[in-house]
């Protein structure tokens, strides 16, 4: 089945070239089925790139998915045009009266700031509170995962000695959880962040399940026992080139970044990296959509 996206969204052309089945809003209105309505709060600076990455992963399902994009009203991104935001995004006041089957909260390059010092923190906490009654299940990615752990479960973050960047091996710690159904016992996930969360605090929390972890990168996939929240501290949505683009960007800025771990072939930044986490990413999104969104949402919201 297709993923329903706004007409003329730039990601649509890219996905079409990849032979991914998309459908614009006009055609979707003729489909006599109950689609899933997914809201994406996109906090990443390169919004168009993140749109494509997430839509690609949401497309691998027999379910029709309607997508709406949300941006913060209290902070305006400097890396995307105003016309793009006006055409394809809504603010919280525009959608707060609606209910959604699922929601994705992306990462943001602000993890070194205390949560309360983030410009849009108050707005984000209002949105996170709103999800309790208006969204069936929420997937939080990277900083979004840290924000959810802090707001919903009181688990803070701590700063790492240096930026954690690279592709790291992870172990599946629970094999009877639907989110991991079909997963390998070991898989790789990209990470790109300056902070982490304490594994012991997650394990000690009565409302949380630690699904996967890495010796080098720490906790990765955390699930609330009520299935309301899926928190992924890595970037399973990243393209093969994303970590490399971040590395070269920082190098050009004179920041002398560390080469991402186990990412470039032969550890050579001039060689093209391979995507070794694609299958795991598709599986996580498919299982989330099926077991935590589709299977749990009433056919008709009251």
UniProtKB/TrEMBL annotation:
Gene3D superfamilies: 3.40.50.880. The record marks 192 as: Important for substrate specificity. Pathway: Amino-acid biosynthesis; L-methionine biosynthesis via de novo pathway; O-acetyl-L-homoserine from L-homoserine: step 1/1. Substrate binds at residues 163, 192, 249. It is found in: Cytoplasm. It holds the Pfam family HTS. It catalyses: L-homoserine + acetyl-CoA = O-acetyl-L-homoserine + CoA. Belongs to the MetA family. Transfers an acetyl group from acetyl-CoA to L-homoserine, forming acetyl-L-homoserine. This is Homoserine O-acetyltransferase. It comes from Thalassobacillus devorans.
